[in-house]
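DM from R.C. (forwarded with permission)

"hey, sorry to bug you on a friday — could you get me a structure for this? deadline for the figure draft is monday and I only need the backbone to look sensible"
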Amino acid sequence: MNNRITERLHIRYPFIQAPLYFLTNAELVAAVSNAGGWARWGHTPGKTACPARVMSHWIACARRSEK
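My reply, with the result:
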C-alpha cells in the first residue's frame, strides 16, 4: 500500500500501534514494526521514565526488530 502516511513514515502498511502503557512490551512493538507498521511503546503510568529504563526498552525492541 502506498500513500502519504506510508511514504512519510517509511512503512509498508498504514498500521499505527499506539503506546498502550503497561500493555505494551518489546514483543508487541517489534511485531508491529516487523509487519510493516509504525510501533511505539509507553511507560507504565505512575512510574518515572528514567533514562536507564528508556534505554532498556529501546534495546529490547531493537533486538527483536528486523529494522
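R.C.: lifesaver. The first strand starts at residue 16 and ends at 17.
me: no worries. The chain is about 45% helix and 5% strand.
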